[in-house]
Amino acid sequence: MLLIQNGTLVTMEDDMPIVRDLFIEDGKIKAISPSISQNDIPQTKQPLTILDARGCFVYPGLIEAHCHIGITESKMAKEGDDCNEVTNPITPYLRALDAINPMDAAFDDAVRAGITSVMAGPGSSNVVGGQFLFMKTKGREIDRLCILEPAAMKVAFGENPKVNYGTQNKMPATRMATASMLREELFEAQQYYLKWKKERNFKDWTPDFKKEAWIPVFERKIPIKAHVHRTDDILTAIRIAKEFHLDLTLDHCSEGHLIASEIAASKFPAIVGPDLASRNKIEVQNMAFKTAGVLSKAGVQVAITTDHPVSLIQSLPLCAGLAAKSGLGKKEAMRAITINPAQICRVDNRVGSLKEGKDADIAIFDGNPMEVFTNCLYTIIDGQIVYDYYKDQRTQVKS
Asked: What pTM did the predictor assign?
């Protein structure tokens, strides 16, 4: 059990920070109240830890909505890179669950920054790359860390599939081929899904392993997660999603500010970034921190991404701050790394805000987390303190 007292809570459930106490039991937020004393807590055999957060800001744990943590491992070069299966452009049946290594050092970086959960999965080399998952950031067994698996189906438009396969003299070598190959795969998957709905309970039904992965997409339980930078790629992704009546997230969306009204009309959310990275490709030449603000003001739900390791995952709150400075505003910027990604990733029933009944994933800061000199003092996941700034400082002094 954990009792946080005297903290300025920024719940992301309402607009105003307010001094409150917060009680955690069995990994969940049990109570939020103006005052909770030790005497208010029923006596049990569980030990009670009390944190005095006076002068500090208590936020829901931060959320990274699109990254490749653990599947492209820090410090491991080629041996730790399992992000892209570049031998086949259509691989919907690949599962991030089978490749992400929770021992990747970047998970520790995330925890130290107050990032308590992430959406992670395959890269963008393939037209269809495989299944993403949503997971917590502290632990050794990925099956126990997952909140949602599968959580999305990765598809990619633009330069990456062209470069990876066109140079092998294979399809796709053009944007036309990428769209055509995706349509063909979706058409076949849709036919399989319709047959599955009708015949799956018959004794002679034979599952197709490679098409089974599409079922939650066509049931609209999970979205297509589209790697898109340029305006034409963004609009192609929207067009294809609407043709097949599928849900979609627009990931990166680097030129989204140029077609903000069209994106807003689509009703699809955008996961914007990594704007801290270099403009190392033609399709990201218009990348800018202003994109998130322009889209938000147009009515698009926005989350911020580092696209780790393209930019480092611990820079997530800094990226949100730079987006706030460039037009998104402080309130919406904090929403873009808490409740918005939770909603976009469809896990807001558990994370993304401080609310009774939700997972006790909490980050306590000595200031605004989007400011560069602010320290994350405590990171709490499932009610357990997994990072203690003061203990960490003492350890560094001793060493």
From this structure: 0.96
